[in-house]
């Protein structure tokens, strides 16, 4: 049996590095994990006034998270934090208060950037946001992917061997993290 992992690409850009990394992870995942890569397109803005009758897109996103066995965030860094679309999705899925869809779900975080810092501030933002609304966050290996600009070919396939090695180590560790918390 494979654990179903919702893998959230934290960027809306069609050719985003986050989406390419998420797709590469899905291909590298061991048989114990089945990664469903999703984007956040179509999730309307969180507004507490709508909680009494949540929009259908909120309910569908919450249900997808609730039915999963874990969540993997792959995020770029915008202005030393996560993109607004990702924060919005987290707000949507973590409500109503006390009923977060992320509760109990093992979580993984990978940040990325074409620049030298690898999105470390974005990862740290998620590490600040998720405790209290999510399950156990995998602590090691911390993975901040820098210089990802040349890691993929025109078809979006991973071609940088050094990145493949890092992603393989990460997804194998994440598989162990998920199994530990479901075992």
From TrEMBL:
Origin: domain of life: Bacteria
InterPro entries on file:
Flavoprotein-like_sf, FMN_Rdtase-like_dom, NAD(P)H-dep_reductase
Q: Boundaries of each NADPH-dependent FMN reductase-like domain copy?
A: 4-143
MF terms per GO, please? FMN binding; oxidoreductase activity
Span-the-membrane segments of this chain are: none
List the record's Gene Ontology CC terms alphabetically. cytosol
Which Pfam families does the protein's record reference?
FMN_red
Q: What is the name attached to this protein's record?
A: ACP phosphodiesterase
Q: Which organism is it from?
A: Bradyrhizobium centrolobii
């Amino acid at each position: 049996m494979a654990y179903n992992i919702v893998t959230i690409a934290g960027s809306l850009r069609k050719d985003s590095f986050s989406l390419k990394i998420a797709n590469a992870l899905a291909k590298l995942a061991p048989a114990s994990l089945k990664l469903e890569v999703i984007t956040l397109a179509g999730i309307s803005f969180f507004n507490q006034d709508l909680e009494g009758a949540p929009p259908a897109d909120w309910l569908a996103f919450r249900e997808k998270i609730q039915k999963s066995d874990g969540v993997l965030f792959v995020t770029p860094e915008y202005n030393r934090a996560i993109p607004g679309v990702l924060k919005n999705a987290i707000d949507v899925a973590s409500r109503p208060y006390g009923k977060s869809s992320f509760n109990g779900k093992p979580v993984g975080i990978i940040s990325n950037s074409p620049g030298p810092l690898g999105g470390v501030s974005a990862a740290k933002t998620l590490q600040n946001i998720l405790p209290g609304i999510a399950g156990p966050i995998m602590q090691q290996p911390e993975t901040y992917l820098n210089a990802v600009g040349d890691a993929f070919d025109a078809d979006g396939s991973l071609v940088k061997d050094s990145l493949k090695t890092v992603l393989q180590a990460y997804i194998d560790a994440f598989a162990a993290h998920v199994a530990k918390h479901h075992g």
